[in-house]
Amino acid sequence: MPPVIADPALLRVLIVLATTQLIAWGTLSLPAVIGRAMAADLGMDLTAIFASTTVLYMSMGLCSPLLARPFIKHGGRRVMIAGTLLAAPGYALLAAAQGPLSYYAAWLLLGIAGSATLSTASYIVLNEVAGLRARSAIGALMLVTGLSSSIFWPITSALSAHVGWRTTCLLYSGLLLAVSLPLFVFLLPRRVHDHLSPATGATESGPVAVPARSTFYLLVGASGLNAFVAFGMGAVLIELLKAEGLSAAEAIGFGSLLGVIQISARVIDFLGGGRWDGITTAIVAGLALPAAMLLLMLSHGSHAAIAMFMLIYGLGSGALAVARATMPLVFYDKAAFAKASAQIGLPMNLLSAVAAPILVELLTRYGSNAPLALSLVCSCAAVAMLLLLRQRRPSRATAS
């Protein structure tokens, strides 16, 4: 089987999805860059501005299961087109916001649109197009999308400085309509309908065993707990390192390494060429997280220990991002994958939404060891669920 990047048709789809995912995630990072300007203009404090992330993930999570049927019936391409048409007015509404009500309404609309256009939708499209190569294709896509903040943070900062944050929002609305929408409409292939029944999972090659419901719950639990740790730690990392005794400059310096290390882990997984599946990746990477948390809890501010923490945590969390997207491929095929991914999106996004407030509260109230201890417990629980999933891996996944 040739590498995914050697297939011209699949490479075109990857380029389209990489471009549109960079735009989608990059433009959603507005508060991280211009949050203070937005707060001053809207008469809101900075905490209220950053609460937009909670609104975004809550609405994405609640809408995700509702899109399972449209994904199965109409395919990922049409759903992503509809989501883009909804996201553009979301940025226009954000540009026109005059206070908390209209501000949060805009993020609610962007969250609904995000459930149809962000990561899960792109993975469903790749599963439709790539088939057995979907895992490698998803890994290749995630190599690029991890750079969204690195690309769009300076762009957002420069645009806001020259034209203001409201005009920046309008420009991002136009970017979706001028770039993302045409790419979806004209370059994503229309879904080729195979002989697959969403209800039974039957294909031309014969019936596909439907996993037990408990297997789905284990997938939800492992994915959700790892997402809680990843999104929560990402939000509090700089403040956590400061609490460990680093200066602001040192904390930012160490924190800036995280993205590079995470991308390196994704490269390693991608170069594996499908020699292991998402469950194996998740177990190995999942073991790294509690080790990293324990190391930092015992570091006592040692720069060497903090650097080792960043390396271990970065590699583990980077590989887990790929594993969360590809684990359902071990158990589900085609339409079943679309339905399972959409349903997993609800608890995973809800846990992502509450992660930052919980870890910030623990950090400010009890110190750095409290959020680390909670992350340690969540990571260990996720590994236990992954080990149970490993025992349930279908024989076809083991053979591949």
From TrEMBL:
Name the SUPFAM superfamilies for this protein: MFS general substrate transporter
Gene3D superfamilies on file: MFS general substrate transporter like domains
The record ties this protein, via InterPro entries, to:
MFS, MFS_dom, MFS_trans_sf, Proton-linked_MCT
Organism of provenance = Bradyrhizobium denitrificans
Q: Which UniProt keywords apply?
A: Membrane, Transmembrane, Transmembrane helix
Q: Where is the Major facilitator superfamily (MFS) profile domain?
A: 13-393
Membrane-crossing residue ranges in chain numbering:
9-34, 46-67, 79-98, 104-126, 138-158, 170-188, 216-241, 279-298, 304-323, 370-389
Coiled-coil annotated residue ranges, if any? none
- The entry's protein name is MFS transporter
Instruction: Output the PANTHER family linked to this UniProt entry.
Output: MONOCARBOXYLATE MFS PERMEASE, MONOCARBOXYLATE TRANSPORTER
Q: Does the keyword Disulfide bond apply?
A: no
